[in-house]
Amino acid sequence: MTDLKKFIRDIPDFPRKGIIFHDITPLLQNAKAFEAAIEQMAEQLRSHDIDYLVGIESRGFIFASPLAIKLGTGLVIVRKPGKLPYVTLNESYDLEYGSDSLEVHSDAIHNGSKVVLIDDLLATGGTAKAAGDLIRKLGGEITGYCFLVELTELGGEKRLAPNPVWSVVKYEV
């Protein structure tokens, strides 16, 4: 089961006209497809020295959690403001329609920790870059970024350079 695209549903004009939304919920509903996605992501990461996987809110948690177990790493979560109970660091970033911010616990990563950030989709890279900036503030070293889906024409990989970007399914927009 290597062609995961057949488990990703395209929804035109969502969330607004002209956008094609790549819905991963059918993939998650199919145990074999979900397992194949996790295995393909893990395969891209196995040869790297990794201390922590960082799941980016919220769908990044879905993939980072089983990957952390499979790879034997720690799991760190990056969330929207006000969702974490301990002392946090915050990183704001711009979106095409405004701005947003992310937070991480201040003790989540230690100096020199090797980290891979995980999310479901890479588009322009703004959210992933902000999460990476948070990890760097804590002294973490970004080993790379791993995504289930990448929209290649939106340039997210360039925004995350010079760090490597791994993705399982690629779409040209």
If you had to describe this structure to a student in words, what would you say it looks like?
The chain has helices at residues 25-29, 31-45, 59-71, 126-137, 156-160, and strands spanning 9-12, 20-23, 52-56, 74-78, 88-95, 98-105, 114-122, 141-151, 165-171. It is of the alpha/beta class. The strands form three sheets. Strands 4-3-7-8-9 form a five-stranded parallel β-sheet, with helices on both faces.
| Count, helices | 5
| Structural classification | alpha/beta
Rg over CA atoms, rounded to whole Å, is 16 Å
- Beta content comes to 35-45%
Strand order of the largest sheet: 4-3-7-8-9
Biggest sheet layout: 5 strands, parallel
- Let me know the average pLDDT: 96
> What pattern of helices and strands is seen along the backbone?
EEHHEHEEEEHEHE
Ends distance: 24 Å
Poorly predicted parts: none
Report helical residue fraction. 25-40%
Number of strands: 9
Summarize the SSE layout with pairings.
Elements: E1 9-12, E2 20-23, H1 25-29, H2 31-45, E3 52-56, H3 59-71, E4 74-78, E5 88-95, E6 98-105, E7 114-122, H4 126-137, E8 141-151, H5 156-160, E9 165-171
Features:
single chain; 173 residues; alpha/beta; five-stranded parallel sheet; two-stranded antiparallel ribbon; 29% helix
Short description:
29% of the residues lie in helices and 35% in strands.
